[in-house]
Amino acid sequence: MSSSHSRYSTGKVVWWALGLALVLMLPSLWVGLQIDDYFHWGLVNQRSDVLLSHSPLSPFGLFSFLDGDTARVRQLMDLGLLPWWTNPQVEYAFWRPLTELTHWLDYALWPRHPMLMHLHNLFYFALMLWAGFRLFHSIQGENKAWVWAVFLFALSYSHGVPAGWLANRNSVLAVLFMALALAAHHRWRSAIGDGGVVPHRVAVLSCVWFGLSLLCGEVAVSGGAYIFAYAFFYERGPWLARIGSLIPCGMVGVLWLGLRGWLGYGASGSGHYLDPLQTPWLFVQALFQRGVDLLAGLVWVIPPELATALPDQRRWWVVGMCLLLLYLIMPLVRRDRRARFWLVGALLCLVPVASTIPHSRLLIAASLGFAGLLGLVFASWREGSLMPLDSGSGFRRKLTSVVLGVLVVLQLGLSALLLPVEAFSMRLAGDSLVNSGAKSWQLQQLAASTTPVLINPPLSSAGGYINGVRDYLDLAVTPKTWLLVSGVRELTVQTVDEHTLEIKAPKGLYDPVQEGLLRGPQAPFQPGDKVSLSGLIVTVVAEEGGVPVHARFQFEQGLNSDAYAFSHWHGGEVAPCNLPSPGQSIKLKLNSDRCANVE
After folding, report:
1. What residue ranges in 151-213 does DSSP mark as E strands?
2. Closest by alpha carbon to 31, among 128, 166, 154, 155?
3. What does the radius of gyration of the chain's CA atoms come to, in whole angstroms?
4. Cβ neighbours of 107 (radius 10 Å)
5. What is the pLDDT of residues 398-422, one digit of tens each?
């Protein structure tokens, strides 16, 4: 093959893969702003002082809404921007200054044109794919294994939410710079291994790319996992030199970690994010369950966010199937250091992201290594060289063909079908959980002294999101808005007296899994616990597993006074609610068409 034809073929593969991925991502152009995006818009445009947080060396504090300031958390709870059950000590603050600057471009240049913001997102997505393709080319070589890897990476459904949700852009940027760092590291170490001379600036460039990746998002820690796997499973030569190769990027990582901690960034008091350094035992306890769900999403294309609907026994099936796959590809793993590198790197990437609730978007870094591994596996399988001709029975070969055939269908077929769905999924979630109710809530007719109270929204943690949506749409925003309990389960609401409501839900007044961001298992409720807000006292009457199942809400003013306007969630919209008479109760669901005596 001539060099010119080789370059043409390479370019053709890249453009086909890029074009196909971008076409499948087109639904993201209609996602608009969703959930955290409204916070970011308000912070950049300084539309609400209450959103401001203490965020050193961060242009706008977009990712540190919960900055560890207990007094500020209390203030946000008083205003209803955080629910009453929030852990006052919760901290969820991340240092992503480079990502913030890209959001500033969006909200400064085209603040009312979300489609342009999503085009901006797709630009970084295309760059990330291109960087991944180059990394595959440098490690795999220009062959069928490279072509397989390119299309597997381009069509990974795990890219849908990071590239389709503006607030998750940090993951795309982090993996972009991570791939560039790995390519530079490979060039540096390969030249040394071949006895060549490579300028030290290549090693420095690897560190620079890695540092930029860390300043985009925490998923960049996965870059360290790949560099570790490279030294121990890919590189050849003296062990001392291989271990020494970890020092440059290791120093960058230690510097970033120390500076991040010194500036006060981190996470604590949350059930969503378990910081391995602050709560190591809780992290270890959650590692198996979360790790297996992530592994199922990576290998067998079972979206981790949907896995909770499956029986708990699914995890043992996943482990068994993954061990079977490893057994079938082991001949390749043993003889090909590239396969060992990609395999170990991808698996190590699952460890840091297991610190939070499993979701397909967390697989974006691991998808790089897994695409590289499967590229080698599929190419070797199709060429008939996956295992030596004199090894293995006919049954094993047939089983290998069946399992790998299924993987091809899942990784290229099902994953490609899921990619546009994942890209649009934040619009579907935002509309059902927040947007429709925020737009329909009739707040403009309320007096300034009236506090609107929404009894059963899908998420009682959505108070701040609702105000953000209304502010962006120039709809009326009240000074205080209380959301009482999550309505995803049937509730019983009883009026005790003219000032008091009691609400019961046998499975919890909020969902500790979906809403665990604001309160983790390390801060359980006990019967008799009180939460005092300005004008409202909430008393936990009964709990189950640390989550209230029965609570009493004592309002400072009379329930039927003009001080409050009670509403309930009705088929995706907010409708007025007349509370039952003292001693009477009603049952509410998300689709309840009546609340007491409303006609």
Report:
1. none
2. 166
3. 26
4. 21
5. 899 999 999 999 999 999 999 999 9
Beta bridge partners of 542: 550
Q: How far apart are CA 246 and CA 232, in angstroms?
A: 10
pLDDT 10s digits, 7-21: 447 788 999 999 999
Report the C-alpha gap between 228 and 230 in whole angstroms.
5
Backbone angles phi, psi at 304, to 5 degrees: -60, -30
User: What residues are paired with 502 via a beta bridge?
Assistant: 494, 552
Q: What is the DSSP letter of 252?
A: H
CB 67 within 8 A of CB 93: yes
Is 92:72 a contact under the CB 8 Å cutoff? no
Using DSSP's 3-state secondary structure scheme, residue 454 falls into strand
Contact 427, 31 (CB under 8 A): yes
Least confident of 31-35, 100-104, 591-595: 591-595
| Pair 213, 249: CB distance under 8 Å | no
Q: Which two tokens stand for residue 521?
A: 């298992």
590 vs 456, residue with greater confidence: 456
- Residue 451 is given by DSSP the state E
Give residue 141's region: left, alpha or beta (phi > 0; psi -120 to 50): left
Reduced 3-state DSSP string for 489-548: CCEEEEEEECCEEEEECCCCCCCCCCCHHHCCCCCCCCCCCEEEECCEEEEEEEEECCEE
pTM above the 0.90 mark?
yes
133-171 pLDDT per residue, tens: 999 999 998 889 999 999 999 999 999 999 999 999 999
Query: How many other C-beta atoms are found inside a 10 Å radius of the C-beta of residue 583?
Result: 9
- Beta strand 451-454 with 500-504 is unpaired
Dihedral sign, Cα of residue 64, residue 69, residue 70, residue 76: negative
| 314 CB-contact burial (10 Å; exposed 0-12 / middle 13-18 / buried 19+) | middle
Q: Quote the pLDDT of residue 351.
A: 93
Q: Are 28 and 163 in contact (CB under 8 A)?
A: yes
